[in-house]
């Protein structure tokens, strides 16, 4: 009959347990037991050799004492080898006194003159006596007629020093083994105590490992690590992990891209890896809060930092650059809608005025009114276009002037404004001007005689922008703080947070090698000055300008 396969549950019971606690405990117990057995064996081996050496030295000492007995050599030379002879009596007396296994005296031919077994007296020895008869002292463990013994052999000399025989003494090896066996219980007691201490230490270590690993199996831990790596490198948010000392210990791919750093930042502090700034302050925990805004390069990031149980922290980074751009486009669209609404309101008032003049049959006054309205609007547009030759900036200022008029603010382009159409990055300058004008309009809104003045001028290839307002101004202690990401005194709009505009202005200026400063205007308000070196291209030579003008004229004529 075929046997059924072993059930999976039984196979698991026969193998290692799944829990880390049980596996670590079993492994450490096995290691402790192995160390105890190894240590006991390593101790027993030298103890056995030591006992053997002691037995052989004792046998040699008895042999030397026997060989030095007065008259023993003379008795061996003058009497025959008999069981009741003087040599046999002397040897037996020494054997009984010392507890030796045997004391054998032999002549130079190897014939025994004494032995424990009287039948062996007069016979040749069973082991080679050559070395002892040659004058050497010998210690050894050997097999003889009385079994395995620890032996000592010395030459026997007469009164003149001549070798006439030898003395061989044996210590029973069973006594050596008995001493060794008697020492084993003590060794085992020490080994058992060491094993018990090792088992306790293994249990304590296993409990600690169990708490730290939350009693997961090794396979579960490996799976979690693999899943963590896949998750960290697959998510579209930057993740930065810091240890308890504030050093970076992990960066995923998205964090490296957003922060512009590589794997070399691991092991360094945020200040060392990123340089001083708000981003490093947020990662290091010196700035606290949720959804903290920071600017890194040309990117606007949202950071959140969460402490971990080991004293470190994990920070997540989200890219809000596109969202900020869309938000600003929405602001621009709203500004355009406000401008159109203001123009519509103003146009409606003018049309009502014109309709009234026509109904009153004041035709000449109506013609004059239309001419004034068209002329004023054209004069404003022509004034801006004449001073600011870049079409993007000119359109921005015309639109902002309409919005300012709706809000009761006079937006004035300074008479000193002269900016040619040679901008390297017109969109960047539009962002700078738009942010500064918006901040100025917010600052003067609701104040009497509100006025904002914009001045744009070129100094060689350097563009200098100044925006002045008649608002309350900025206290000296806050003039550097206002450029910090996320700092604002106004309530944020619904679609995005405030505190980015002035920070972006500074970043855009610094990216072009310039800077932005804030001071007090003559009227007591704020005055922002932005210097942008290399913001303009080199002017074209006069012949090239004439050729371009002639080409333009021909195209218009054609």
UniProtKB/TrEMBL annotation:
EC number(s) per entry: 2.7.13.3
Spans traversing the lipid bilayer:
20-47, 187-205
Membrane topology, record value: Multi-pass membrane protein
Return the InterPro entries for the record.
Answer: HATPase_C_sf, HATPase_dom, His_kinase_dom, PAS, PAS-like_dom_sf, PAS_fold, sCache_3, Sensor-like_sf
Q: Where is the Histidine kinase domain?
A: 425-536
- A Pfam match: PAS
What are the protein's UniProt keywords? ATP-binding, Cell membrane, Kinase, Membrane, Nucleotide-binding, Phosphoprotein, Transferase, Transmembrane, Transmembrane helix, Two-component regulatory system
| Gene Ontology CC terms, in alphabetical order | plasma membrane
- Region spans: Disordered: 539-558
Q: Which domain of life is it from?
A: Bacteria
- Example GO biological process term? regulation of DNA-templated transcription
List the subcellular locations. Answer: Cell membrane
User: Could you tell me what reaction this enzyme catalyses?
Assistant: ATP + protein L-histidine = ADP + protein N-phospho-L-histidine
Q: Bias regions of kind Low complexity — which residues?
A: 539-550
Q: Where is the PAS domain?
A: 224-266
MF terms (GO), sorted A to Z: ATP binding; phosphorelay sensor kinase activity
What PANTHER family does the database record attribute to this sequence?
SENSOR HISTIDINE KINASE TRCS, SENSOR HISTIDINE KINASE YKOH
Spell out the protein name for this chain: histidine kinase
The record lists the organism as: Streptomyces echinoruber
Q: What is the organism lineage in this UniProt record? A: Bacteria, Bacillati, Actinomycetota, Actinomycetes, Kitasatosporales
């Amino acid at each position: 009959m075929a046997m059924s396969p072993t059930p999976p549950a039984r196979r698991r019971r026969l193998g290692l347990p799944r829990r880390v606690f049980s596996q670590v405990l079993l492994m450490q117990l096995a290691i402790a037991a192995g160390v105890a057995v190894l240590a006991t064996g390593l101790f027993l081996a030298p103890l056995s050799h030591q006992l053997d050496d002691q037995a052989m030295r004792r046998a040699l000492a008895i042999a030397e004492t026997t060989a030095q007995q007065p008259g023993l050599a003379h008795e061996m030379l003058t009497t025959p080898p008999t069981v009741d002879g003087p040599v046999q009596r002397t040897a037996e007396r020494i054997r009984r006194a010392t507890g030796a296994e045997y004391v054998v005296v032999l002549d130079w031919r190897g014939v025994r003159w004494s032995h424990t077994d009287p039948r062996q007296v007069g016979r040749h020895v069973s082991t080679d006596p050559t070395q002892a008869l040659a004058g050497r002292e010998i210690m050894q463990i050997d097999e003889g007629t009385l079994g395995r013994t620890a032996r000592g052999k010395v030459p026997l000399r007469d009164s003149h020093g001549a070798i006439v025989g030898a003395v061989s003494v044996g210590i029973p090896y069973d006594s050596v083994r008995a001493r060794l066996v008697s020492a084993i219980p003590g060794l085992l007691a020490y080994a058992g105590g060491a094993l018990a201490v090792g088992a306790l230490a293994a249990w304590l270590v296993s409990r600690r490992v169990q708490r730290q690993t939350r009693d997961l199996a090794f396979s579960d831990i490996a799976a979690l690590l693999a899943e963590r790596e896949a998750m960290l490198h697959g998510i579209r948010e930057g993740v930065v992990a810091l240890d308890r000392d504030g050093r970076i210990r992990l960066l995923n791919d998205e964090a490296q891209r957003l922060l512009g750093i590589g794997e070399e930042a691991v092991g360094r502090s945020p200040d060392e890896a990123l340089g001083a700034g708000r981003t490093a302050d947020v990662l290091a925990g010196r700035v606290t809060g949720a959804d903290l805004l920071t600017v890194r390069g040309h990117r606007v990031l949202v950071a959140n930092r969460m402490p971990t149980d080991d004293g470190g922290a994990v920070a997540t980074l989200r890219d809000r650059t596109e969202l900020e751009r869309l938000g600003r486009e929405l602001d621009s669209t709203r500004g355009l809608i406000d401008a159109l609404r203001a123009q519509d309101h103003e146009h409606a008032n003018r049309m009502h005025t014109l309709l009234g003049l026509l109904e009153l049959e004041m035709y000449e006054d109506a013609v004059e009114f239309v001419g004034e309205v068209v002329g004023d609007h054209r004069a404003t547009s022509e004034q801006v276009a004449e001073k600011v030759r870049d079409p993007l900036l000119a359109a921005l200022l015309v639109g902002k002037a309409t919005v300012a008029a709706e809000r009761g603010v006079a937006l004035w382009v300074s008479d000193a404004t002269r900016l040619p159409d040679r901008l390297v990055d017109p969109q960047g300058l539009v962002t700078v001007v738009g942010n500064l004008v918006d901040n100025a309009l917010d600052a003067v809104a609701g104040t009497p005689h509100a006025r904002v003045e914009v001045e744009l001028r070129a100094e060689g290839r350097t563009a200098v922008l100044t925006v002045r307002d008649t608002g309350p101004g900025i206290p000296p202690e806050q003039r550097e703080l206002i450029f910090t990401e996320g700092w604002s005194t106004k309530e944020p709009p619904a679609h995005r947070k405030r505190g980015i505009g002035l920070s972006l202005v500074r970043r855009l200026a610094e990216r072009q090698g310039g800077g932005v400063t804030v001071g007090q205007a003559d009227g007591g308000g704020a005055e922002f000055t932005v210097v942008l070196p290399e913001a303009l291209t080199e002017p074209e030579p006069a012949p090239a300008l004439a050729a371009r003008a002639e080409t333009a004229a021909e195209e218009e004529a054609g």
